[in-house]
Amino acid sequence: MLLKAHHIPNLITGLRILLVAPFLWSLLQEQYGVALLLFIIAGVSDALDGFLAKYFGWTSELGGLLDPIADKLLLMGAILSLGWLNELPYWLVALVILRDLIIIGGAISYHFLIERFTATPLMISKFNTLLQLILVCAAIVHYGMALLPSWLLIALIYLTALTTIWSGAAYVWRWSARARNREQ
After folding, report:
1. Per mean pLDDT, which range of 10-19, 49-58, 160-169 is the poorest?
2. Of 47, 65, 124, 146, which has the maximum CB count within 10 A?
3. Number of domains, the chain
4. Cα–Cα–Cα angle for 74, 15, 21, nearest 5°?
5. Tens-place pLDDT, residues 46-63
6. What is the pTM of this model?
7. Measured between alpha carbons, how far is 78 from 40 in angstroms, rounded to an integer?
């Protein structure tokens, strides 16, 4: 199969998925400089493939599936690893995992019990993801490179927790309302 221009975003996403393992290995080995560099490369590649897909109309169903998987693998792996290293509180790690399990479980249930599910992220969910990304970067910098003010990490932890709860509840509310409206 010949590589065509409209395959580039999916190729970039695939490469981002391949970055997850070395990123997590670096993080767990406490090689924070390497981990941060790989995390930044993954973030830039996410922005690049998104830009290419939208600007040139190179979107695809595969890309729509792979992109959020790549994002979740990277971010969830980072949060789990930072929790394992005692650099994020266990309760926050558990909260983030629980939220994602509720969202995935709700999406699957909705898809199979009510109607075909199409993912449309809520604004609060996008904000939550942004806070998670900032928290991961801040934790990597703080524990491996340069101490940040403790109030900053504490604020990021609690803001992330708040938006995690808020976004999880918003999805449950939205899907419940849709399900009730379909039944009527």
Report:
1. 49-58
2. 124
3. 1
4. 45
5. 999 989 998 998 988 888
6. 0.90
7. 13
